[in-house]
Amino acid sequence: MRFLLQRLAFYLFTVWAAITINFFLPRLIPGDPVRSLIARYQGQLSADAIDSLYVLFGLDQERSLWGQYVDYWAQLLRGDLGLSFTFFPTPVSDVIGNALPWTVALVGITTLVSFALGTGLGVLAGWRRGSWLDGLLPVTTFLSSIPYFWLGLVAIALLTGPGSFFPSSGGYEPGLVPAFDTIFLGSALQHSLLPAATILVSSMSGWVLSMRNMMVTVAAEDYITVAHAKGLGERRVALHYAARNALLPNISGFALSLGFIVGGTLLVEIVFSYPGLGFQLFQAVGAKDYPLLQGIFLIITVSVLVANLLADLAYLALDPRTRKEG
Amino acid sequence: MSSPVLEIRNLCVDYGVGETAVRAVRDVDLTLHRGQVLGLAGESGSGKSTLAYGLTRLLPPPGVVTGGQVIYHPPAGAPVDVLAMTPAQLRRFRWAETAVVFQGAMNSLNPVHRISTQLLDVLKAHRPTSTAVGRRERAQEVLRLVGIPADRLDAYPHQLSGGMRQRVMIAMALLLEPQLVIMDEPTTALDVVMQRQILGELAQLRQRLEFAVLFITHDLSLLVEFSDHIAIMYGGRVVEQAASDRLYQQALHPYTEGLLQSFPALRGPLRTLTGIPGSPPDLRAMPTGCAFHPRCPYALDVCRSRLPPLGRPADSHAGRTVACWLHPTAEPATETRP
Fold first, then answer.
1. Chain A residues with CB inside 8 Å of B113's CB?
2. Is B329 helix (H, G, I), strand (E, B) or coil?
3. For chain A, which domains are there?
4. If you placed Cys at B227, which of A94, B11, B37, B171 could pair as Cys (CB 3.0 to 4.6 Å)?
5. What is the ipTM score, two decimals?
6. In chain B, which residues have their Cβ closer than 8 Å to the Cβ of A221?
7. A230 and B60: CB-CB below 8 Å?
8. pTM for the complete prediction?
9. Are strands B229-234 and B37-41 parallel, antiparallel or unpaired?
10. Phi/psi at A135 (nearest 5 deg)?
11. B97, B112, B170, B182: which to substitute to probe chain A, counting the most A Cβ within 10 Å?
12. Could you read off the pLDDT of B104-150 as tens digits, one per residue?
């Protein structure tokens, strides 16, 4: 319990540090949001409009940096992340709220599936070392070294086009209204197949490789020999003795990848113009949309931290050696 | 008392196959009698552990048993060849008839499961009809046998000391009341005090439960005390075998003599420890003739060219065998011990 509280304190501190950095970074950059908006509208804004923009962004009053910092926190706690420039005057929280489900659904599901499948295959390949399954290894090494986006480009070039079942971009059929009905969900599923397959193919190989190597290492441990000598069934030795121990190092890797779900696989979303957070981030960078960037970074930071906390919890549950007392 | 429980006949074990194969165990014949302790001693690389892994079929690749038989005599029923068992037969045979206590006291227990899980799954696998309560009672019983309080049953391995872990392994070996317990340097990872304590307890347990022990160690002094018979291995072969007191009083093979002079006697006149010059043979390029001749102070011409057979020496008592040209055999022996 003490261990957990310590970790929790550490994470709270990290969140505070991340938010503080998030606050100061844009203020270190020369210029202000109104000027970038003016540049955006190329002088079509009247003096009144500019004034009201300054009021809107709260830049009219001379506030100290400390005062701004306090205001920023107050805003954050209300869930207010400011207004987006690109989608002005939509609040950043709405923009993120629209993009987040797409990314979480696409990358989240593929990450889970890829971890489960990859680990399973790795256990099998590691346990049956020397069988035909070893033939998979060069293939997985090759696949894991391919960048996602390249695979995505190849998939688009080969599989999409007029008359093809696979759409080349977007998250759903243009013209459909997002709703929870079969037509929309079917269309969303159809659009997610290629990006999902792309992520799956190139991320799964990494799990296969690392799990297989851990299995081979663990299989040489004394307790595996003992388990064999005890006359236990092959399956019990493989799963409860070998795989159970081989899984431990992979857990932290999995937690990290959970944290990056929210960040999205940026390049895949760009290649497929998928309406997720990664694509949004790309657009925000292109448009110098600082409030949106800040908001997305905040979400990514928090989710990475939450994933790490989950990894700590998983470790506590899976490895008794990390539980200090008891 | 002299009925055999395990007979090893012409056992050969290789590492690797084909041209590059290295023969680690060569034509070993050993007989283990019911309720007795057979000590197996030799330097590192002499093939003693390989022999133990080979006869239990636990040898990890690239080790291959290339020949011979391992005949197990059950208390009731016909003898069986362990090497010819099907996987299912082998699973039933393991632990129920021969249990093993391994070298690494620290790593023999699965770190992520409780002691209880690891004791109970043996019972569950071998006695599927037993009840959960019965299994737990049996596990507590064997823990008490080795002097561990029954409430430690639900501890994790990392919560136990090295000595306790090795006791747990011994308790685990006794779970199914096997006829034979193979101990591969069971106390090497422990300090000498703990070593002594555990060996003392083992000797008592063995008298009470009457299982036979194949005790493997490089520490001949330990064997002299603990075992009934001793076999000395060198370069993958058994070079001498005798009752332990006789071997200690009068070693016939120069290698045994060398081993005996590598540790001090507690009583009797002081003598200089000499040890054995040189190093163990390279298994890839074994010397011709007797494998020990390059290190042997008494080497004759014949030692360089011809391999001495293992047999009863003409110039000594019955009941022991040696493979040395200094003590030519009375008759080519087929049985290693009468």
1. 240, 244
2. strand
3. 2-77 (no CATH), 94-322 (1.10.3720.10)
4. B37
5. 0.84
6. 107
7. no
8. 0.79
9. parallel
10. -65, -20
11. B112
12. 767 889 999 999 999 999 999 999 888 999 999 999 999 998 889 98
